Structure formats: C-alpha cells, structure tokens
C-alpha cells in the first residue's frame, strides 16, 4: 500500500475533529482552569479567583471547554458548578505536561529543580500504594490546600498543607510509613513535604501521581 493510499484511509473529518480539540486547548487560561477543575467541582467565581481572571473571562473560557466536552456543569441553587467531563481529560492533561517537558526547554528549566528532587526521593507507585492500603501499614498525607482536600482526597488521608507541617508533626505517628501526594506528578508540594519529613527522621515517600490521576483511574476517593 502506498503512503498516499494509507493517508487517504483517514477521513478528513477525523483530522478536523482533532484540530478542533487542539484549538480548544490552545489557550493557557483554559489549561489553568482545567487544572483547577481537576482538583474538584467548583463555581465560576472561585475558578476566577484561583486563576486570576475576571469572572466574565473565566466564564467565556469555561463555555469553550464545556462545548468541547472537557468540563460539565450542574446547578446548585443560583450557582453553576464545573467539573471535569466524562472523557479521559486528566490523562490528556498529563500527556500534554509530559510532551511539554520533553519538547520545550523553557518548561524543563522551570520544573528542573522539582524533577531532580523528585528523582532523589523514593517514589511509590499506585499499585504499591494499593497494597499498602490493604495491609493498613501506611499513613496518607495530602499536602494540598484544605479547600482542595475537602473537594476530594484519597481514602483516609490526613490533610496537612506545607505551611502547617512543622506545627503538626505530632499528627503523624513517629513509626508510620508516610506517603505524601498533592496535585499531580510535577507538584512540588509533596516532594518538599517528604524531604522535610525525612530530615526529621520520619519514614516518608511521595506518590508518583496526584489526586487527579488517582481519581481518573477510577480508584476510590472520599470527600469532606
């Protein structure tokens, strides 16, 4: 089969649809909003505050994302709440981050320190963590802000944001196996927390993924 014949086997509409998806995601503000929505369901006003955009601008970008299926909405009284769409949105965001890390020197420089620190720390895979949870031999430490923890977290996790860690070490058993996690694989909060805990003699490791990836895999989550 010739190369032309192979290319002709794909309908033009297939590439039109892919281009439309790429066009929808081709704005930094929309990617920022998706990252925030991936942490849990939020109203447009809160998303505007988190992203540093006006409510009108935030609403406009969210409508583009909704039409493309990246987010869904539901009404709660007078508020409209946004959550991720039903497709593999979290996986797509992870793939974009991975490609950007591979391809763009600027992004590599931004995350270089966190990657080097992460690589020096002993990571925990999802499969290993599931085994530890079954055996009851692990304490899960969620270092995200309390608001994000309330929207959803791993089962039985303890929420201690980084700025509270020093004052709440007593909340973590001295003989515990601690696994820390945060917003995603490149979130430095968990790496910083693990380094701080290890410096104090505690057994701490970081989860290889974050809450959005855990949830996207269909694993059990809890909410406050």
Written overview of the protein:
By secondary structure, the protein is an alpha/beta fold. The chain has two domains: 85 residues, Orthogonal Bundle (Arc Repressor Mutant, subunit A), CATH 1.10.10; 107 residues, Oxidized Rhodanese, domain 1 (3-Layer(aba) Sandwich), CATH 3.40.250.10. It has twelve helices and eight strands. Helix 3 crosses helix 4, helix 4 crosses helix 5 and helix 6 packs across helix 7.
Draw up the topology in text.
Blueprint: H1 3-8, H2 12-25, H3 28-38, E1 42-43, H4 44-51, H5 55-67, E2 71-76, E3 79-84, H6 89-103, H7 105-120, E4 123-124, H8 126-135, E5 139-142, H9 146-151, E6 158-159, H10 162-165, E7 177-181, H11 188-199, E8 203-207, H12 211-216
Parallel strand pairs: 4-8, 5-6, 5-7, 7-8
Antiparallel strand pairs: 1-3, 2-3
Helix pairs in contact: 3-4, 4-5, 6-7
Keywords: DNA-binding, Transcription, Transcription regulation
Domain HTH arsR-type: 10-104
Domain Rhodanese: 134-223
């Amino acid at each position: 089969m010739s190369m032309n014949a192979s290319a002709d086997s794909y309908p033009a509409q297939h590439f039109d649809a892919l281009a439309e998806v790429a066009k929808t995601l081709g704005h930094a503000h929309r990617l920022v909003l998706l990252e925030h929505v991936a942490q849990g369901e939020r109203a447009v006003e809160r998303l505007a505050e988190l992203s540093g955009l006006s409510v009108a601008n935030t609403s406009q970008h969210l409508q583009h994302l909704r039409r493309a299926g990246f987010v869904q909405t539901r009404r709660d009284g007078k508020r409209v709440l946004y959550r991720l769409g039903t497709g593999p949105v979290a996986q797509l965001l992870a793939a974009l981050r991975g490609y950007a890390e591979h391809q763009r020197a600027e992004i590599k420089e931004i995350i270089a320190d966190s990657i080097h620190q992460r690589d020096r720390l002993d990571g925990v895979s999802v499969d290993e963590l599931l085994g530890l949870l079954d055996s009851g031999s692990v304490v899960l430490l969620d270092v995200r802000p309390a608001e994000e923890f309330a929207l959803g977290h791993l089962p039985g996790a303890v929420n201690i944001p980084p700025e509270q860690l020093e004052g709440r070490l007593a909340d973590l058993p001295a003989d515990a196996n601690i696994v820390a996690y945060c917003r995603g694989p490149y979130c430095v909060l968990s790496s910083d927390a693990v380094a701080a805990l290890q410096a104090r003699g505690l057994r701490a490791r970081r989860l290889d993924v974050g809450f959005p990836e855990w949830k996207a895999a269909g694993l059990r989550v809890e909410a406050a």
